[in-house]
Amino acid sequence: MRMIVSLKYAIMALVVIAGGLAIAPVFETDRHKGPAAVIDADTLQIGDSRYRLYGADAVEAHQMCRKPDGTAWPCGPQATAALSDFLQGREVSCEAWQGRRDVYDRLIAICHAGADDLAEWLVKNGWAVADPDANRLYNYTAVERTAKFLGKGIWSGGFDRPQDWRTLQTGKE
Question: Most CB contacts within 10 A, which of 9, 27, 45, 95?
Fold first, then answer.
């Protein structure tokens, strides 16, 4: 009798495991994964969904910065191009951050290409500033200090912080 009960539980366990394996491909094709189109340096599109990278604020697509001699250079387009080049041929995976959306209805997300955290990559390479209020797991202020010290990207000269630049362009805070 005991052997029949044990066999019954073993068969039930196998059915549960097999059922789990049967639906696993559904999760592998999650709508948050795939090739990403770079809209601007902190906005990605995968399929029909747009994602705003959590923890960083990148220069805007049309933003200009200043070289050390004061001449303008197109830091926004260069930041967008740098991220686009970095992601060329790579699958991107985005996980919505607490299901939140921004004012443009983009999902706030943590996005990776392989092991690379994309917001951290932007900050590390001087294409974005860190959000000092971000969750400590995604707070890139130390990475930003290093990029600033090394004069990478926007830190090679002068620039308006992206939030300030948006305010200047729209007249809204």
Answer: 45
Rounded distance between C-alpha atoms, residue 111 and residue 92, angstroms: 7
Find the radius of gyration of the CA atoms of the chain: 22
Mean residue pLDDT across the chain: 84
106, 87 in Cβ contact below 8 A? no
Each of the 173 residues of the chain gets a pLDDT tens digit; together they read: 554 545 454 444 444 444 443 333 332 333 489 999 999 999 999 999 999 999 999 999 999 999 999 999 999 999 999 999 999 999 999 999 888 898 889 999 999 999 999 999 999 999 999 999 888 888 999 999 999 999 999 999 999 999 999 999 887 65
Question: Is the full-model pTM beyond 0.85?
Answer: no
Q: How far apart are CA 31 and CA 10, in angstroms?
A: 35
CATH architecture of the domain with residue range 33-170? Beta Barrel (2.40)
Q: What single DSSP character describes residue 59?
A: P
Strand extents, DSSP E, the chain: 33-34, 37-40, 43-46, 49-53, 56-58, 65-66, 72-73, 92-101, 107-113, 116-117, 128-130
